[in-house]
Amino acid sequence: MTLTIRELHPGLGAEVGGIDLREPLTAEARDELRAAWSRHGVLVFRDQDITDEQHVAFSRHFGNLEVLPERDYTEDRLPEIFILSNVDEKGEILPTDSAAVTFNSLTWFWHTDSCYRAIPSRGAILHGIDVIEGGGGETRFANLKQALAEMPAALRARIDGLKARHNFVWMRMHRDLAPMKPEEAASVPPVEHKLVRTHPDGSQSLYISPVYMERIDGLDEAATRALVEELTEWASRDRFVYEHVWQPHDIVMWDNTWTMHLVMPYDHGHQRRVMHRTAIAGTEAVL
Ligand SMILES: [Fe+2]
After folding, report:
1. What total number of domains does the chain contain?
2. Mean pLDDT of 170-180
3. What separation in Å is there between the alpha carbon of 1 and the centre of ligand 1?
């Protein structure tokens, strides 16, 4: 088996060919994929009709797996599988005001996954099962290493050394979602992360997750919102962003330590969108 790796965008993203994810991964292919994942930030595998068990088995090659704090959206049988879906158990499209649909709309805001943990996730692997066709539902990824490297000096000087408070419970209140169960809320207390992050290899990136950022060090509410907006606007410019247009059974795997992402808005009410995700646990704090 020979892997092929083709760049998708000058900033980040590569498509991997010559692999069947239903088959066990060889140690050699695993090492090549780990290197490509670190280098390109986002890897795309086309036409991979895998089961949830195969999805979990593939994901385990890259680290331990997280379980989402909200168990309503994880699979009972395999809690490592987080379900993003607008379809009920009978296969009917859910009403647009249902809790699951509102929860899915959170992905329309820029974020990095599990920034609300002291050690955020290393990455995620998303399987597009039913995808939106004809516009909407694309996933955009931004390269936060490049966004920092090219940042105007004046903006950079304002964020060096600052920390931001990321808060899952605040985000939910702020977005008018139903309150969490007390034991779920208690499992995700607010955490602080630096805005400029240094990675184990010495490289640096911006570390932001706009929808979860409750407060930046030393700034009041209004100044926090203004700076979060300015950083988001900067980092989401076209030259830093790869947009993934989904085809059925695409698998997209991203590095969560130096990219952020969002889903382009789509019509919840007319087309099925069913995605299964695993999250690979991080191994280090944001330093
Ligand atoms: Fe996400």
Report:
1. 1
2. 82
3. 31
Give the distance (Å) from ligand 1 centre to CA of residue 111.
Answer: 6
- In a domain? residue 285: no
Q: Measured in angstroms, how far is the CA atom of residue 112 from the centroid of ligand 1?
A: 6
Length of the chain: 287
**Which is more confident, 39 or 95?**
39
Q: Which domain holds residue 179?
A: 4-280
DSSP state of 272: -
232 in helix, strand or coil?
A: helix
pLDDT in tens, 223-256: 999 999 999 999 999 999 999 999 999 999 999 9
**Residue 216 belongs to a domain with what CATH number?**
3.60.130.10
H or E stretch including 148? helix 144-149
Give residue 113 CA to ligand 1 midpoint distance, Å: 5
In this structure, what token pair is assigned to residue 237?
A: 């410019």
> Using an 8 Å Cβ cutoff, are 112 and 279 in contact?
no
CA of 2 to the centre of ligand 1 (A): 30
User: From the CA of 263, how far away is ligand 1's center (Å)?
Assistant: 8
In a domain? residue 287: no
State how far the Cα of 23 lies from the Cα of 3, in Å rounded to an integer: 14
